[in-house]
């Protein structure tokens, strides 16, 4: 959908879309390396705190992803930039769709893996999430591996996405990235 609530075509992303995009990006850019570093911490309080925070922020990423989908439905998105080559259009469409799927699937896999481990997931010590999977060591190992692979896939797609955005900003200078940047008030 590329129409705003008014029914008029969108020229850039809504303020809500931009805000959610950048908050999600910052959280993912912190969550992925943190997730991989947690295993290298010595067992104990610091590692447990790290896992608690990783799970809490992962739940927030999941909620942000769902909010982003809702905002897309409500406010729409701009049509593809007219200057994109057919390859750029296909790559951009693939990257955006893959990122949406991965930022939903990855936290769900982590939640299910942790449930099967079994560990209760307390979100910032405010409430506990219900388990998504039955207790099973074998299932937990499988789901944690899938969670790890999914996080690696996010990393690969993010590198391509960021590279494409930088190419449009620094080399092509065609305004593609500007549609997602916050507008400055004069």
Describe the structure.
- This protein is mainly alpha-helical and 186 residues long.
- It has a single domain (15-180), classed as Transmembrane di-heme cytochromes, Chain C (Fumarate Reductase Cytochrome B subunit), CATH 1.20.950.
- Helices cover 66% and strands 3% of the residues.
- It contains 4 helices and 2 strands.
- It has helices at 15-38, 45-75, 86-116, 137-172, and strands at 121-123, 127-129.
- Strands 1-2 form a two-stranded antiparallel ribbon.
- Strand 1 (121-123) and strand 2 form a beta hairpin.
- The model has no long low-confidence stretch (mean pLDDT 91).
Q: In percent terms, what proportion of residues is strand?
A: under 5%
Strand order of the largest sheet: 1-2
Q: Quick one: biggest sheet?
A: 2 strands, antiparallel
CATH architecture: Up-down Bundle
Q: What's the level 1 CATH class?
A: Mainly Alpha
Compute the gyration radius: what is it? 19 Å
Percentage of residues assigned to helices: 55-70%
Number of contiguous helices:
4
Secondary-structure-based class equals: mainly alpha
Mean pLDDT: 91
Helix and strand succession?
HHHEEH
* Named CATH topology: Fumarate Reductase Cytochrome B subunit
Name the shape in a single word. Answer: elongated
* SS elements, strand count: 2
For the record, give the distance between the C-alpha atoms at the N and C termini, rounded to a whole number.
30 Å
Q: What count of domains describes the coordinates?
A: 1
CATH fourth-tier homologous superfamily:
Transmembrane di-heme cytochromes, Chain C
Poorly predicted parts:
none
């Amino acid at each position: 959908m590329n129409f705003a609530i008014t029914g008029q075509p969108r020229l850039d992303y809504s303020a809500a879309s931009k805000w959610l995009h950048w908050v999600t990006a910052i959280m993912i850019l912190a969550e992925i390396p943190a997730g991989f570093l947690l295993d290298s911490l010595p067992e104990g309080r610091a590692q447990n705190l790290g896992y608690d925070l990783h799970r809490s922020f992962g739940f927030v990423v999941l909620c942000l992803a769902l909010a982003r989908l809702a905002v897309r439905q409500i406010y729409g998105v701009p049509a593809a930039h007219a200057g994109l080559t057919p390859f750029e259009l296909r790559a951009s469409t693939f990257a955006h769709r893959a990122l949406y799927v991965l930022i939903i699937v990855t936290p769900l896999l982590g939640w299910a893996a942790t449930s099967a481990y079994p560990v209760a997931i307390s979100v910032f010590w405010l409430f506990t999430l219900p388990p998504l999977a039955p207790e099973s060591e074998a299932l937990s190992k499988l789901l944690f591996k899938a969670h790890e692979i999914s996080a690696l896939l996010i990393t690969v797609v993010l590198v391509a996405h960021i590279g494409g955005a930088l190419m449009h900003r620094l080399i092509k200078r065609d305004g593609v990235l500007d549609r997602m940047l916050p507008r400055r008030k004069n």
